[in-house]
């Protein structure tokens, strides 16, 4: 199998003049990108990086970030990206945990790098504004003997955002990355010359795969440094983007933006989402707004890229579909320690995925404790709850940890959220369990409202729905904004703790 560096060289050989990257006024074709990346390897060599070393990348989604990615892939250096909003202490954790041998960062992370205890001892490349970095790289001689990695070598080390304590490193091989990229292309029916918005962070599984899927199809990745819904809409219209692959929150914010109605979004034919469930209301509103040719619910994770996909996401009831082309999934009893038994059709169970998937990692980065928790007899335990219908479609109902136990009943928030989200006065909603003397936990809904809507109206809405009575929220809290992680996932735990 090709390694990821070869993937870039092959894209350049296939069509040198196809546009690979746009960042503001800067553009690179595949030919130019491959040429620059071979010179950027000389820069990495100059930092003293050897095969298998980690380069810590603390960058927004810029053209230079993509260049650094491709250079590491050609050089057999492990691309180790982390959130550019990192605090100095966290940066020290990532440096220590990954054992990174060098750092590349942009201006947004300069203060954290300066204040980090460990960063000072490492070779560091600082990227400033403008074209200076690309000029600097193009003045270097090309490195010889590329690509240096074989498909079994490690390509990336991605950190999952730890909900408690620091994140875990997920090392992934070139082979797993390429299989994931190819699956992404197939599952989203990408054709050659696709153009996508490069806003999912390049330190997250979705961002890396967007970039890779574009190279596999000689497509265009339009860099957006950080999310701003109005700017995203401008980029969609200006570059006639054809495919979007985002977390639900970003879709939500684009739809809610005042300039949405006036933006020409007709070029967008393929919608995809992952990372979190999408409410029935948002699915319906996006379907109406874009009338896409296909609308993919991609259920997966950093550890194994694809669990399942559904190309008809807005069809109700909204399902995550069936196993991806490289995947096999099962549902095991929630209270089981092992993975021997399956739950019956319609019964909730923990979703487990076969670890021999071409797209899978093979264990966390020096975390035998995490391996022991997540891997059992060749299966990866997702920590997600779901059920299968009689046709074999998967419905993901939430995280085991998010389950609300109220009066002895197990309640998963997503079903309640979907019902409330359909009320016309509701922009967004998150349901959590909060401590209750009598019930143990009581169901509470945090709502951002589109206009004026009262708790009584929402309660009446739930009563006339199919929602079982014990699932009805007992409290409604109206908030300006829901807390979100840097990649745009809702942080339920902050609401549970009522922070
Ligand atoms: P991450 O590794 O950050 O991509 O997070 C993976 C987790 O996000 C999964 O285990 C699910 O809990 C959640 N997730 C990802 N995709 C979906 C989806 N399409 N629907 C529901 N939850 C999802």
What's the arrangement of secondary structure elements?
Blueprint: H1 4-14, E1 19-23, E2 26-29, H2 30-46, E3 54-58, H3 63-75, E4 78-81, H4 88-98, E5 102-106, H5 110-115, E6 124-127, H6 132-138, E7 154-160, E8 168-173, H7 174-187, E9 195-198, H8 205-216, E10 220-223, H9 229-238, E11 243-246, H10 248-256, E12 270-273, H11 280-290, E13 294-299, E14 308-310, E15 322-323, E16 329-332, E17 349-354, H12 368-374, E18 375-376, E19 379-388, E20 394-399, E21 404-406, E22 409-411, H13 413-421, E23 426-436, E24 440-449, H14 455-463, E25 475-478, H15 492-496
Parallel strand pairs: 1-10, 3-4, 3-5, 5-6, 9-10, 11-12, 12-13, 24-25
Antiparallel strand pairs: 1-2, 7-8, 13-14, 14-15, 16-17, 17-19, 18-19, 19-20, 21-22, 23-24
Helix pairs in contact: 1-2, 1-3, 2-3, 7-8, 10-11
Bound molecules: adenosine monophosphate.
Question: How is this structure best described in words?
Answer:
The protein is α/β, with parallel strands linked by helices and 499 residues long. It folds into two domains: 4-388, 3-Layer(aba) Sandwich (Rossmann fold); 403-496, ANL, C-terminal domain (GMP Synthetase, Chain A, domain 3). The protein has 15 helices and 25 strands. It has helices spanning 4-14, 30-46, 63-75, 88-98, 110-115, 132-138, 174-187, 205-216, 229-238, 248-256, 280-290, 368-374, 413-421, 455-463, 492-496, and strands at 19-23, 26-29, 54-58, 78-81, 102-106, 124-127, 154-160, 168-173, 195-198, 220-223, 243-246, 270-273, 294-299, 308-310, 322-323, 329-332, 349-354, 375-376, 379-388, 394-399, 404-406, 409-411, 426-436, 440-449, 475-478. Helix 8 (205-216) links the parallel strand 9 (195-198) and strand 10. The model has no long low-confidence stretch (mean pLDDT 95). The structure holds adenosine monophosphate.
């Amino acid at each position: 199998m090709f390694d990821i560096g070869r993937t870039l060289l092959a894209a350049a050989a296939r069509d040198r003049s196809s546009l690979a990257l746009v960042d503001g006024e800067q553009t690179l074709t595949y030919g130019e990108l491959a040429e620059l990346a071979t010179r950027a390897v000389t820069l990495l060599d100059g930092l003293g990086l050897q095969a298998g070393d980690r380069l810590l990348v603390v960058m927004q989604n810029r053209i230079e970030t993509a260049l650094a990615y491709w250079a590491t892939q050609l050089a057999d250096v492990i691309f180790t990206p982390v959130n550019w909003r990192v605090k100095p202490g966290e940066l020290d954790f990532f440096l220590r945990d990954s054992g990174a041998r060098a750092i590349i960062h942009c201006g947004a992370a300069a203060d954290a790098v300066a204040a980090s205890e460990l960063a000072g001892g490492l070779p560091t490349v600082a990227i400033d504004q403008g074209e200076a970095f690309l000029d600097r790289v193009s003045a270097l001689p090309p490195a010889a003997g590329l690509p240096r990695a074989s498909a079994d070598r490690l390509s990336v080390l991605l950190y999952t955002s730890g909900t408690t304590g620091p994140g875990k490193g997920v090392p992934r091989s070139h082979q797993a990355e390429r299989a994931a990229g190819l699956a992404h292309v197939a599952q989203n029916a990408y054709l050659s010359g696709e153009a996508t918005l490069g806003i999912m962070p390049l330190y997250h599984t979705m961002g890396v795969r967007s970039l890779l899927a574009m190279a596999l199809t000689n497509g265009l990745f339009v860099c957006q440094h950080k999310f701003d819904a109005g700017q995203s809409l401008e980029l969609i219209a200006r570059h006639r983007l054809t495919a979007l692959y985002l977390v639900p929150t970003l879709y939500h914010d684009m739809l809610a933006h005042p300039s949405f109605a006036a933006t020409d979004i007709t070029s967008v034919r393929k919608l995809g989402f992952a990372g979190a469930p999408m409410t029935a209301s948002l699915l319906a509103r996006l379907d109406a707004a874009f009338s896409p040719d296909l609308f993919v619910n991609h259920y997966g994770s950093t550890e194994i890229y694809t669990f399942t996909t559904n190309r008809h996401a807005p069809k109700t009831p909204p399902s995550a579909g069936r196993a991806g082309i490289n995947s096999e999934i099962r549902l095991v009893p929630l209270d089981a320690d092992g993975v021997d038994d399956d739950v019956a059709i319609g019964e909730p169970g923990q979703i487990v995925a076969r670890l021999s998937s071409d797209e899978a990692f093979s264990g966390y980065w020096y975390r035998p404790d995490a391996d022991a928790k997540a891997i059992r007899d060749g299966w990866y335990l997702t920590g997600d709850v779901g059920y299968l219908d009689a046709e074999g479609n998967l419905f993901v109902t939430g995280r085991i940890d998010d389950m609300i136990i109220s009066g002895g009943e197990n309640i998963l928030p997503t079903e309640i959220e979907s019902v409330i989200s359909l009320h016309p006065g509701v922009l967004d909603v998150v349901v959590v369990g909060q401590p209750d003397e009598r019930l143990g936990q009581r169901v509470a809904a945090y709502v951002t409202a589109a206009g004026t809507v009262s708790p009584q109206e929402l309660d009446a809405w739930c009563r006339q729905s199919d929602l079982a009575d014990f699932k009805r929220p007992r409290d409604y809290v109206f908030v300006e904004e829901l807390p979100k992680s840097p990649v745009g996932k809702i942080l339920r735990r902050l609401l549970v703790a009522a922070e």
